[in-house]
Amino acid sequence: MKNKKDEKWLDETISRAVYIGEVKFDAKQWNEKYILNQSEAAKHSTIKPHKNLWRIIMESKVTKYSAAAVATLAITLVLLSPFGTSGNGGIVLADVQRKIDEIETMVIRGTKTFTRPGEDGDILEFCGVKCEFDLVKYSSIKYGLVEEGYVGDELVYRITLNRQKQQTLLVLPPCKKYGMFTSTDKQMQLLENLSPKGIINLLLEGYHRNLGRDDLDGVEAEVFECKDTEPFIGLLPKAIFDIQSLEGKVWIGIKEQLPVRVEGDLFIGKSLMTMFKDLNLHEVNTFGQYNVELDEEIFDIKPPEGYTEFTLSDILSLIPTKAKAGFAGLGVSFCIVPAGFIVWKRHRKKKTTANQH
Amino acid sequence: MRPIVHVKTDLYNRDVKQNTETILLNAALNGDADSFNRLCERYYPAMVAIAYSRLSDRSLAEDAAQEAFYIAFRDISKLKEPNHFGRWLTKICRNISSDMAKAKRRDKLVAIEELELQRGETTEQENYVEAVRSIISKLPLKAREVIYLRFYNKLTYQEISNVLGISQEAVNGRLRRAKKLIIKELGRHNSIEADL
Lengths: 357, 196
Description:
Chain A has eleven helices and 14 strands. Chain A is of the alpha+beta class.
């Protein structure tokens, strides 16, 4: 360039040459395309679809139903994990995450209720028993995860996901039956997601809303709401577990900087897990015991003495023909089979018959 | 005294801008979607420019920028140094654009043919603009990036430095070299035209 005039001319010429018109970010359009439209988002997602999960379940040594039940429980645990939270204001996610990093174990208590969709929202009954469970969960980053479901004082099911052995054990005390199988990659991934960082990463992919302060029996907390199912899309095939909507609320203690309560409402569409019936699941988890000493034996996957492994016929004999047809793809509705419920009911029926004699 | 006042104002504006960005980013890290949208608005033109320097197609460039935002939104918790959000986003956008460019390569001949058809009759100045555009498209990638950021986005050296993660001196050097190349190629272009 000989002089400033030439330089100015060059700059102007370059500016004209590179001008491609005004561009403006359209937040609404972007949200619709990439955040709300899950299929578009999934297209760009690096999470690989687990095409073989269905085959794995069908070929499992244990019945396909118990395997699927395990998968449901596992996914519910992920969905309602206490680690899933974010927010602003009084709670800073980074602080919560730092605190969570220090947590190795925890004990969770709560309830799990299955209801039918509709205005009444009545609790689902299966063979005269209400599907409303009291829960106790034990979680250890090192050993794995245990969920116990009670009706009254009676333990109905106990499911153990052993992280180290990559094995899952489902125990049904009412009928002294058990099922054990190698955990699929997917289930282990779900378990990995239960790690503090994993679940925070998972939930950060969705939108969150701060609902403000709340008082939980004297514990001041900030409430966050998550209505985005996107982070959970692809965790299981729709044919098995079709999460159509999710509303989760997390209470994070202001003082504790840790989750103190989680509530989740899921609407599950017709899928294998619901026996091709629409269904609501409401779960409440409360936390108070972090970093408690949990014995490795809690996560033991050795079947209890006197228990026998249940077979496909144990379950199929109790499922009406209509439901079996549903499995075959006819889409006939029936009702949900919570983990081990059928076998348990069979046991109860036998007891009743024996008493009558 | 006047220039000093200007310098102070610039520094003040820069600080305010940086602080605002930090606030937005922290809020976004805490799951605030509106803050993330505002960051997107801020970086959108620059990301389109980065993508355009690889793709030479505005529509694709906008797609690449939007996809970069989606990846950033998804992986924002992995951002280790919040102050480096701009350069992190740029890296994502570069990767996406490169992938798109590879896919687009097979259609390159068609695109050139379309460009030829669009030209038509032009004035002398427009000839120069067209020549410069052609030269820019053949510049090394790094030079193209900095040219678009400077002359399309009208970013300051400081802003380019933030986006590309290089020093202002390096920005200046890249721009100088790019312009020299353009002048050199323009000279060659003119001599060819003169010969014709």
